[in-house]
Design a protein that fits this description.
The chain has helices at residues 5-44, 128-132, 160-177, 192-202, 206-224; strands at residues 52-58, 63-69, 76-82, 85-86, 104-112, 120-123, 145-147, 156-157, 181-186, 230-233, 240-243. The protein is α+β, with helices and mostly antiparallel strands.
């Protein structure tokens, strides 16, 4: 059945209005928040625009940290944003609909100015580690975002003002560097006390404890440097593997 010209015009008009609204939303955020972003970087003692952006999220503490600095580090902390909503419990996301916030090493790989939750930035879940642990016939789900509006069904929600700041930071840094910013999502801070608490939390769940132990080197290396460590996923086991960041001027093999 053919659509009438009037119907087509109405659909096109609605799409154009939606696009304009999204552009207005980002433009409004830029107008209202860009001075705040530059002030945050100035207070942290690092230039804006930046050459590197790194985000860490801690589920137990309900905190999201933004770090920035030169391409080869070291980085400085620019801001800590509290979660205003996050569903699920400690542990990875293993299936669609489990309400879990993932745990692991991801990137911020897509920007959604049309979000129902003000503005949103997608987390690159599922990754190869998540797919390795997928049970046959059980969908992993997706559409995990950091967003505003303080509602969560597996996402990390921060307030609308903070998501505007983070959106601009990540969007402008990707435009400049042509790279997606890494986001590492941890169950909690993985110092000695944190790991002891997680061992108690895991009980007899050896798989969950093994995941947490595989995440700890990335936390420890960054705390010591602070430079973003190199991460990879073992194709055979699905385990995370972590190496120190390459220092400036050092050749890689």
């Amino acid at each position: 059945m053919r659509l009438s010209l009037t119907r087509v015009a109405a659909v096109v008009g609605a799409l154009l209005a939606l696009s304009a609204h999204a552009e207005d939303r980002v433009a409004t955020a830029r107008k209202q928040r860009m001075k705040d972003v530059t002030a945050l970087f100035a207070a942290a003692g690092t230039p804006w625009p930046t050459e590197q952006l790194y985000v860490r999220a801690f589920k137990h503490e309900r905190e999201l940290e933004v770090w920035a600095g030169p391409k080869d580090g070291p980085l400085v902390k620019v801001r800590t944003y509290p979660f205003c909503a996050a569903s699920g419990e400690l542990g990875p996301k293993r299936r669609q609909g489990d309400l879990q916030v993932p745990e692991g090493f991801y990137t911020l790989d897509l920007f959604n100015p049309w979000s129902n939750y003000h503005l949103s930035i997608r987390v690159s879940y599922p990754n190869a580690a998540d797919r390795h642990h997928q049970k046959p016939g059980v969908p992993l789900g997706g559409d995990i975002f950091v967003h505003g509006d303080c509602v969560s069904i597996g996402c990390i929600a921060i307030q609308d003002g903070p998501i505007e700041e983070l959106y601009l930071m990540a969007l402008d840094t990707r435009a400049r560097t042509k790279r997606d910013a890494p986001i590492h999502i941890f169950p909690r801070r993985l110092d000695a006390a944190g790991m002891a608490a997680l061992e108690k939390e895991a009980g007899s769940d050896a798989e969950r404890l093994a995941l947490w132990k595989s995440l700890q080197p990335a936390y420890t290396l960054f705390e010591e440097s602070p430079r973003v460590p190199r991460t990879s996923i073992n194709a055979r086991t699905g385990a995370y593997e972590v190496k120190p960041a390459v220092k400036a001027g050092r050749a890689t093999r």
